[in-house]
Description:
Shape: globular
CATH class: Alpha Beta
Number of strands: 8
Strand order of the largest sheet: 5-6-7-3-8
CATH superfamily: P-loop containing nucleotide triphosphate hydrolases
Largest sheet: 5 strands, parallel
Order of helices and strands: EEEHEEHHHEHEHEH
Structural class: alpha/beta
Number of helices: 7
Amino acid sequence: MTLRADDVWFRYSRKSPWVVAGVSLSVEPGEVVGLHGPSGAGKSTLGRVLSGSLHPHRGEVSVDGRPPRPGRGTANPVQLVAQHAHLALDPLWKVRRSLAETGAADSALDALDPALAPPALLDRFPHEISGGEAQRVNLGRALLANPRFLVADEVTASLDPISQVELWGLISAAVDARGIGVLTISHDRPLLDVVAHRVLDFRELVRTPA
């Protein structure tokens, strides 16, 4: 099972420029691939296309030959974890409800690594937890969907150094234990050199539109 993008093109309207132009890449199970490039280059848009949240105008995204399904449900083999953790959580829902949104059984919630969602956080609202705690909850929610791949978009960019190390430790544990493939997007090349098995330069993937 491989996550593939084959000659993928995307733009937000017919009159706007291409944000993603002719990009091809692949991520294998158990592999962490870094995607490096400057802010505003189109990396996050590509991440949403890979997760099925956006649909390419040309080309194809597939997991084992099938397109990923949009949304956060258990049917989608590609889960997106974005940078702004609090914005990814419904402010009116307690953490427990946000985790249950995946459709996971109560037994799965109970078995979730407490490092991702400590019991003390489950009955709090997003504004009552820190950025690092919110991002761990988002990672836990993604893992509850039993994905084959994660798209981690600048997931530690807003966190302090200690929280960064803790979150990457949890991601690495999921890669090792479950064989999950990860595409991690960042403009921080030194970070990618540490956490990724290989690093792609987004600018080298993009084609010049005809």
